[in-house]
Amino acid sequence: MAFGKSILGDLKAIVGEANVLTSAADLAAYSYDGSSSWQSIPGAVVFPSKVEHIAATLELLNRHGTPVTVRGAGTCLSGGPISPPGGVVLCMTRMNRIVELDREDFTVKVEPGVVLHDLNRELAKHRLFFPPDPQSFLAATIGGCVAEGAGGPYAVKYGVFKHYLLGMTVVLASGAILELGGNTMKNVTGYDLPQLICGSEGTLAVIAQVTLRLLPLPEARCTVLAIFNDVRQAGKAVHRIRASGVVPAKIELMDNWMLRRIEELSPLGLPLDAAAILLFEMDGSAASVAPETQEVIRLCQEAGAIQARASEDAKDAERLWGARRAAFSAVFGSAPTVFAEDVTVPVSKIPDLIDRIAEIRKRYDVSIVLVGHAGDGNLHPSVLTDKSNAEHCGRAEKAVHEIFVAALALGGAISGEHGIGLEKRKFLKHAMQPQAIDLLRQIKSVFDPKGILNPGKIWE
Amino acid sequence: MAVGMPGVLDSESADRCMKCGFCMSMCPVYGVDHNESHVARGRNMLIRMARDGGLATDASYRDSLSACLLCGRCEAVCPAGVPSPAIAVGARSKMVRERGLGSSQRLLYRGMVKHRSAFAKLVRGLSWLPGLSNRKGAPVRHFPDVVAAFFGGMSLPRLSAPFLSRRLPQRIPPREGEIVGQVAVFTGCIFEFFLADAGSDMLLFLAELGYEVSYPHDQTCCGLPVLSGGDLDTAQAIAKRNIEIFSRYEHVVTGCASCGGHLKRYESLFGSDDPWKEKAAAFARKVEDFSEFLVKRGHLAPRRREENRRDSESAEKAGGKPRVTYHEACHIKWKQHVDEAQRKILLGIDDIDFVEMEGADSCCGLGGYFGIAHPDLRLAMLAKKVDAIRRSGADIVATSCPGCLLQIMDGLRRENLPVRAMHLAQLVRGGY
Ligand SMILES: Cc1cc2nc3c(=O)[nH]c(=O)nc-3n(C[C@H](O)[C@H](O)[C@H](O)COP(=O)(O)OP(=O)(O)OC[C@H]3O[C@@H](n4cnc5c(N)ncnc54)[C@H](O)[C@@H]3O)c2cc1C
Ligand code: SF4
Ligand code: SF4
Fold first, then answer.
1. For residues B194 and B154, what is the distance between their CA atoms, to the nearest angstrom?
2. Is-contact B346 B339, C-beta < 8 A?
3. Which residues from chain B sit within 8 angstroms of residue A93, using beta carbons?
4. B11-99 is classed in which CATH architecture?
5. How many folded domains does chain A comprise?
6. Same domain, A182 and A256
7. What's the pLDDT tens digit per position in A46-91?
8. On the CB side of A21, how many CA atoms lie within 13 Å of its CA?
9. Which of A6, A166, B71, B316 has its CA 20 to 30 A from that of A207?
10. Cβ neighbours of A26 in B, within 8 Å
């Protein structure tokens, strides 16, 4: 353990005995996240119940130079919430109140441990809606999503977390409590600090409260399923739809592996040899959704879809999206180790990236599953391997590297939403100029001079 | 004896858990204390680590194993189909095989439960002692602390007197007219010992519908409490006995959600090379929940229309009809997936005023061994449930699990709430 009994006693005095875990099993339960290659046992898990708890905890640990890793639900796919051995995990899940819902101005103030799904369930009662939808929404917390800059299928039309961030309360490593941003749609008071915290992966400050912008719940929704024999045709369909001016809320792409998994887990009667499927969601007023749905179906057929149909009703639509979620999750259970990548390219370059990945798959003789947000250029190629098989794992790592190189060459980025964390830090230098990485380090040292907040993440 | 576990009980299936965290959105225990070692995702990881030598099987490990209600929600939501409750049971069994049972558990499982009828005789003798049973129809009061200690401080109703099997014969002819069919009933321990009135309502209702009801008195506990405590060997012995006793019958009905959920999964107790596996599967196919049985055979078509159903906020007391709310047992919804049948039945009863409580499907917190090992968590969950019952404004809370009934009765007593708790069978028979 990196710290002594007295720190433990102080921690208990701050948050209460029941909010500090130290037993072997409890610590092991906070040793991992959603990724498959990283694990390490912390020295204690601390649950704050209010912002003052966070402040006092950080002040104490900063004094002792003890590493603190903030954790939400631990669904991160890049090792972000994993503490260095013996460090303190500051777990936000017991701070899970919706503090204030402003139905006049469509904003909500939440504690960081509120689960995204719970928020939307509450909002739906008031016919409101918070669009960003990382597919881990059943578990992921608002704090974790802000810290990862998360987003999901809705990004096509509605954007990602950072587009909804109005203000936040943060606690610095020193224990100082700061209010950043505010409650307004526009705000250019100084540097945009909330945006800096967003996506900082717990390395700059602890997010203690967040104010988010909301939208009214769309009146109508319809899902379109289109099946293609050729991935390029699917790419063509996406391009034509975007050019037509119709803006689907979601455009999701799945490859043949995913399609087969769907048929296994929740059969929809898909042709098992098809190359790709696209799943669209149209939303808006009832008057606009119907014609737009027809237009999307027509454009898919024009692009060569062998099948394109609209969902029959809400239940049918939920079945299609549920199948997509289940199949994506199944990727992680399909091999002992999964490198779930997260590259993003300009939307028009998706077919090129897919071709490149097919070559890489062949060259290194590894399985690479493809699923992604075709509407925003964010693809999740997942390389299936086993870290206990060094030879195979070596090939898989090379494949991952090549995928990054391919994405960057196409003008893309190595992570669209999962963050860098531990998983991708060794690739950072390929994606950012050395001076820019230096700037990151300097920013970090201003916020957290002793480097206690989530050390070892993002860069090597 | 080999330490390997049959089929889904084996920790191998925990390797399929990809830590997506979906189970955290559903788990009632995690919902109370947000401790990841108390939910499937964490527990699966601990079990894998312990198996691979990366974690000591100390008290904290056993605490994690016991902090599961075996409610089945995580399995229902799991995209990888990980049988987490079974994995937890397998790990508990492994602990028991390695460390042995505690003396009170051994007495309970291998004495009382395994030899149920002998035990019943003993208790019957004791039940003459004042205060132990509700022989004179006295209001249900607390069962002496001796037994309560087994159940983590839960206050139990007095013992039924006489027990169910002493009230009704092994064969109950149809009440009148033609025989519409034959059915055997698995009653379960709680109907037998504590809620014999409700149990006999179920048996008699089937007879009134025209069934020839078989009620073999030599049947025993379903074995779930025993398995939940990690005593796989006794659970297997109990299962074999029930499978044999019911081998003569084509349809087996139970009014206990927990027994039903377990009987339907007897197969999982046996390894793939065990000849009992096939027998268990054949037996499981014959088992139906009471409500499922009724609805499948069209005995209770809903007479009230769906739009008559009101939620608790808007409902006012309708013309003298008792207001009934419904607690959905975990083992009905998440293990047996027959929750639709229950509501069809409730909506079909004309002279009650049915209102939904908030969180009808949230767990009452009993969970067998869980409640014994974690009385504080049990009570926290129970308090939520009782509060929802209070807010529904109901006169009666109905459910289809005698286990939930005991737990809810305990909660109503603790809160002094003048609401009656009833089994669905009592309602359909008009006993309100
Ligand atoms: C099945 C599955 C599907 C997924 N799909 C998507 C997807 O579609 N889109 C997407 O973007 N992501 C996705 N993810 C990744 C992950 O769910 C998101 O990154 C999510 O935002 C993490 O939230 P969390 O609460 O689990 O945070 P954690 O995993 O606990 O933490 C993530 C990071 O945030 C930091 N952090 C957490 N809380 C705070 C706080 N209060 N203050 C400061 N820092 C904090 C942590 O230190 C860590 O670095 C998926 C993951 C899984 C398992
Ligand atoms: S839902 Fe299933 S796969 Fe996901 S964490 Fe829970 S047990 Fe594991
Ligand atoms: S069975 Fe129920 S209590 Fe146990 S882990 Fe699953 S959801 Fe939680």
1. 14
2. no
3. 34
4. Orthogonal Bundle (1.10)
5. 4
6. no
7. 999 999 999 999 999 999 999 999 999 999 999 999 999 999 999 9
8. 27
9. A6
10. 35-37, 60, 64
